[in-house]
Structures are given as structure tokens and as C-alpha cells.
């Protein structure tokens, strides 16, 4: 019996965890579909603009700093490697494609998740445990219309814009490190960028940023909205755990979907 139990216990645990994950993913998918339908509800535009400022404009400085130094580090490291191979002329190709196809969408999404996604989950979670969401329902105000849909719409607008800014500033950062500091040929750098970055690369970046916007917006809102149902804490502890869970899960799914999208669009 002990031998049989030693075999079945891990399998039972694995099955329970897997079923719980599937239920959670199903609930989040339903939550997303409802929120997407509510985006087109009338009188939402001013709420969306407010969230664009909170999610996007307030994250702009962070994106500029991270993209500048990401591009500079990428340009510097790539220059040394390419020079050792006698191929420093392709520096612009390496920097631009790395940023546009991979680093731009992923790093900008992770940065926005850490700054704005956590704030969304915490704000909605506090409203949930303080019964403000219940008060909205009592006043016949749909919380999905009032809170969730504008934030999701703002994410869908902001993520592609922040990704584009990250790509452009990162390419300029690579130019500064590779040509201004290391004295590579600036004309060749921009020629390589222009000749090798095509619409397929831009479309991949756009698709990734939209997918990441749906992931971060859905998970952040979902975790905060149902913070009161968590089993690992109550009250402020539930909000703290919901916020942490939202950031961690968003970052994991960003990397997972980055791999999936890259594999499908190769």
C-alpha cells in the first residue's frame, strides 16, 4: 500500500494542479471576452484616455531609459563580437532585428507590467476588499464597463506605441554605442537598419505587443477583481498576493507567448 501511495500521490497532485490551472485559464478567458465586448460600450472614451495617461504616459520615462541602455549595451556587445569576426558592418542589422523582433515587445511589456500592471491589480483589489465594487453593483453600475474595459482598451493602445518607441530609441542607443563611441561607420549602420528591417518584422512586433497587452490587461484586472476569493490571504494580504501573482504570471506568459508567436511567424 505504501508503494502504491508513493506512486499515486505525485500523480494526484499533478492532476489537481493541472485542473486548477485549466480552470483559472478558462475563467480568465471568459473574463477577457466579456471585457472585450464591453470596450465598445458608449461613453467609454474619456475613461480610456485617463487610463492611457496612467498606463502609458506615466511609463514613458521608464521605457525611454530602459530602451536607451538596452540598445547601447546590445550595440556595444555586438560590436566587439562582430569585430572579432570581421563583420562589424552588420551591426545595424543585428541591433535592429534583435530589438524589433524580440527585445522591444518583450522588455517594454515586462516594464509596463511591473509599473502599471501591478498598480491595476492593486487598485482593483483594494476596491474589491473595501466593497467599492459591490457598491457599484448596488448602484446598477457594471464594474466591467466602469473599471475593466477602459483599462483593457488602454493596454491595447499603449503596448504597441510603447513597443515602437522602445524599438526606435533602442536602435538609436545602439547607434550611439556602436558608431559614436566605438567609431563604427554610421552610414553603414543606418543602411543595414533600413535594408534588413521589413514589414514582416514590424508585424511580428505589433502582433506580439497586442498579445502582451491582452495578457497583462486581463491578468492584472482579473487578479484584482477576484482578490477576495483568494485562499492564501484575506484583506490587505489578499491584495498583496493578487498583485504579486498578477506580475509573476504576466511575465511568465509574456515569455511563453513570445516563443509561440516567434515559432509560428518564422
User: What's the gyration radius in Å?
Assistant: 22 Å
Main β-sheet: number of strands, strand sense, barrel status?
none
pLDDT averaged residue by residue = 85
Describe the global form: globular
> What fraction of the residues are assigned to beta strands by DSSP?
under 5%
Uncertain segments: none
- Fraction of residues in helices? over 70%
Tell me how many strands there are: 0
Distance between the termini: 51 Å
Helix/strand order: HHHHHHHHH
Structural class: mainly alpha
Number of domains: 1
Give the number of helices.
9
Quick synopsis:
The chain is mainly α. Helices cover 85% and strands 0% of the residues.
Describe this structure in words.
- Helix 3 runs antiparallel to helix 4 (91-129).
- It is globular, with a radius of gyration of 22 Å.
- With 266 residues, it is mostly helical.
- It has 9 helices and no strands.
- The protein has helices at 2-38, 45-55, 60-84, 91-129, 132-138, 143-181, 186-196, 199-225, 236-265.
- Helix content is 85%, strand content 0%.
- It has one domain.
Amino acid at each position: 500500500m505504501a508503494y502504491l501511495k508513493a506512486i499515486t500521490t505525485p500523480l494526484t497532485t499533478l492532476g489537481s494542479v493541472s485542473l486548477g490551472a485549466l480552470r483559472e485559464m478558462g475563467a480568465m478567458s471568459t473574463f477577457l471576452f466579456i471585457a472585450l465586448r464591453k470596450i465598445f460600450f458608449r461613453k467609454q472614451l474619456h475613461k480610456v484616455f485617463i487610463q492611457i495617461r496612467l498606463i502609458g504616459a506615466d511609463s514613458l520615462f521608464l521605457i525611454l531609459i530602459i530602451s536607451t541602455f538596452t540598445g547601447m549595451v546590445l550595440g556595444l556587445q555586438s560590436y566587439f563580437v562582430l569585430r572579432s569576426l570581421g563583420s562589424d558592418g552588420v551591426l545595424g542589422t543585428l541591433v535592429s532585428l534583435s530589438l524589433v523582433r524580440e527585445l522591444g515587445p518583450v522588455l517594454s511589456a515586462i516594464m509596463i507590467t511591473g509599473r502599471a500592471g501591478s498598480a491595476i491589480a492593486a487598485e482593483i483589489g483594494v476596491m474589491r476588499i473595501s466593497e467599492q465594487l459591490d457598491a457599484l453593483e448596488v448602484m446598477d453600475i457594471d464594474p466591467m464597463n466602469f473599471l475593466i474595459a477602459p483599462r483593457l482598451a488602454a493596454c491595447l493602445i499603449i503596448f504597441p506605441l510603447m513597443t515602437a518607441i522602445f524599438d526606435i530609441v533602442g536602435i538609436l542607443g545602439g547607434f550611439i554605442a556602436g558608431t559614436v563611441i566605438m567609431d563604427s561607420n554610421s552610414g553603414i549602420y543606418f543602411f543595414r537598419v533600413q535594408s534588413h528591417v521589413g514589414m514582416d518584422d514590424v508585424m511580428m512586433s505589433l502582433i506580439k505587443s497586442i498579445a502582451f497587452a491582452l495578457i497583462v490587461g486581463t491578468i492584472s484586472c482579473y487578479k484584482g477583481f477576484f482578490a477576495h476569493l483568494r485562499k492564501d490571504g484575506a484583506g490587505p494580504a489578499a491584495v498583496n498576493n493578487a498583485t504579486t501573482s498578477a506580475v509573476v504570471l504576466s511575465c511568465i506568459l509574456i515569455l511563453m507567448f513570445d516563443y509561440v508567436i516567434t515559432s509560428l511567424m518564422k
